[in-house]
Design goal:
The protein is mainly beta. It has one domain. It has an eight-stranded antiparallel beta barrel with strand order 2-3-4-5-10-9-8-7. A hairpin with a 6-residue loop joins strand 4 and strand 5. The radius of gyration is 19 Å and the shape is globular. The two termini are 30 Å apart.
């Protein structure tokens, strides 16, 4: 009987309760939440986890009626978040994929949409889709523009699979009308 109680207690996902939904912030976002950003309403459709040498962080897939993006923490001291959107790696100037395959690293400078980006950091780790499973290994390189507000991230998955995304750092206060998932 005690075993049954413990099994039930630990096998069920805890449901979070939000007594005061007027006090929700972007830090509270979870799957199913909706919020307003810019002129659109967005819904959190997935939550993924990354483990790197620098630590662990979460990324949320968010969808509006016209777009799919990703949201992750930015600079905590500045209360910013990073909104990213996947782009074709072939749209980045030069043949970045071939450069990485040959040199095991990207070039120091890349160009996308007429803007130059400079290599800022690299990391490797594991990606956990929906925060589950064993995790897929990856390597990523971050590039920043002169303003350090825009970024390009190139990720390598295995020997030949690459993804790229463009991102913009935005202030936390720009996320409004946050509501929890309906039950």
């Amino acid at each position: 009987m005690v075993f049954s109680f413990l099994k039930d207690k630990f096998s069920k996902k805890e449901e979070k309760s939000y007594d005061d939904i007027t006090d929700l912030t972007v830090k509270n976002l979870d799957v199913g939440f909706i919020f307003d950003y810019e002129t659109e309403t967005w819904q959190v459709t997935a939550k993924n986890r990354y483990e790197t040498d620098e630590g662990e962080y979460f990324e949320m897939e968010i969808k509006s009626s016209s777009d799919v993006c990703f949201l992750e923490p930015g600079d905590e001291d500045l209360h910013t978040w990073l909104i990213t959107k996947k782009i074709p790696i072939g749209k980045i100037g030069g043949n970045v994929r071939a450069h990485i395959k040959k040199e095991q690293d990207p070039p120091d400078t890349i160009t996308y949409d007429g803007v130059e980006y400079y290599l800022d950091a690299s990391t490797d780790g594991h990606f956990f889709k929906d925060c589950e499973g064993e995790g897929d290994p990856f390597i990523s390189w971050n590039f920043l523009d002169d303003s350090e507000k825009k970024q390009i991230t190139i990720e390598q998955w295995g020997e030949t699979e690459f993804e790229a995304s463009t991102g913009l750092e935005v202030e936390e206060f720009r996320f409004m009308n946050i509501l929890p998932a309906s039950k």
